[in-house]
Amino acid sequence: MLIVGALMTRPSIFISLVVSSAITLMPASAQETPAQTASPAISENVSSFERAAGGNDPGYNSPTATADDVKPFDPAAATQVWLDSVPRNQREKSNAYFEGGYWLILWDFVLAAAISVLLLTSRFSARLRDFSERVTKIRNVQVACYAIPYLLLVYGLSFPLNLYENFFREHQYGLATQSFAPWFREQLLGLALTLVGGTLLVVVLYAVFRRAPRTWWIWGTVVMIIFSGALVLIAPVYIEPLFNTYKPITDPKIRDPILAMARANEIPVKQVFEVDASRQTTRVSANVSGLLGTTRVALNDNLLEQCSLPEIRAVMAHEMGHYVLNHGAKLLTYLGIFILIGFALARILFDVAIKRWGEKWGVRGISDPAGLPFLALILSTLLFIATPFLNTVVRITEREADAFGINTSREPDGMAKVALKLGVYRKLDPTPLEEFIFFDHPSGRARIRMAMDWKAANLPTGESHASDSQSATH
Ligand SMILES: [Zn+2]
User: Fold this and answer.
1) How far is the CA of 108 from the centre of ligand 1 (A)?
2) Separation of 310 CA from ligand 1 center, angstroms?
3) pLDDT digits (tens, 9 = 90+) for 208-229
4) Which of 282, 396, 221, 278 is nearest to 32 (CA)?
5) 146 alpha carbon to ligand 1 midpoint, in Å?
6) Is 292 left (phi over 0), alpha (psi -120 to 50) or beta?
7) Measuring CA to CA, how many Å separate 243 from each of 186, 208, 267, 382?
8) pTM for the complete prediction?
9) How far is the CA of 319 from the centre of ligand 1 (A)?
10) What is the pLDDT of residues 24-66, one digit of tens each?
């Protein structure tokens, strides 16, 4: 299965789709201005905005005043000031990186489709099935004998694009920290996991196809949901440690404020983890992964080095939002609905196509593993078409976590700073249509606006003494 193959070679992507949807941020690049030095530039710009806003306010006369003192606080103008604080060349670079990603969605799909068509029309798929039938009489083993070479072949044919997309391009934009050898070692590790997990899934699905040739799309969905759930459940324990080291955060200055927020929301964690993501990337990120008892909140080392405590609190409160709002189970449910619709359409399309081309391709029916590339073709096409809808489902969930995060952390400026760091690789200010189609997280503009709206609405509470005295004088 191409989808599962793609998901399994990059477990973090799968996990982020299903459960964590990590708030992923990063500094410009290893060579560029680090986050710490970016902050003064931001506050400088905010001060200039304050000065500008102060000009309209007769009561404003302190040039060192914070944004909180600006009355009235205009969230739209404040949002624009944050956005304008990003240097133009940096914004152009991140736009280029993100917009290039739009095309990669297309090329990934075109390549996957081309591989499927090639395997079918060349009858390579039929010959691989014949080979597996000569090897053994046992049906499940036949499917495994088909699946392993199939997965290897798909990986091999996709490798050039994979190499460009995940190695050269990441280095080109200063996002990667690995040289080729360790990167390739992790690729092989991912491939090994794909072979184990992918083969197991294909064997189980074909057992379902043989027993339920008419209703396989229903039982197949059940298999996919169980498989996805199991993958998310075991990922923090068995998969993630293969790529990175997780250790509890011991610095009380970081740990205690995070655990305090966790306690305030009755999240049963005793420790927060740090992951050495700098092994692979310069991106700053945090995530919640796992399901039920394996749920774990982890901050990456880039984030710990480059973000201030208010920013860390903003990020962690967002991740806690995923936990408290039960996003793991919800996303798994939404994913299940997508899979059910996809399998129902696949059942119809598969039968129609096999009547027409089955003989030419040497595919006998749904329970024949030779039809696997065709099933992959249908599902990858549907997945491609569903991109805006899947992104929207995930983005709405992320927005919920943002809302939870800002209310829990009460760090609007921290949230805005984090959104800017994230904007280094995610287009900060897209058009609404672009955001709908391509964004699996709210854009930087949307996030900063939420933070500034919150700030505007909460100024009296946050500044209770000041507002008391002001209401007395007004
Ligand atoms: Zn998130």
Assistant:
1) 25
2) 17
3) 999 999 999 999 999 999 999 9
4) 282
5) 38
6) left
7) 7, 33, 27, 31
8) 0.80
9) 6
10) 322 222 222 323 333 333 333 333 333 333 333 333 333 344 5
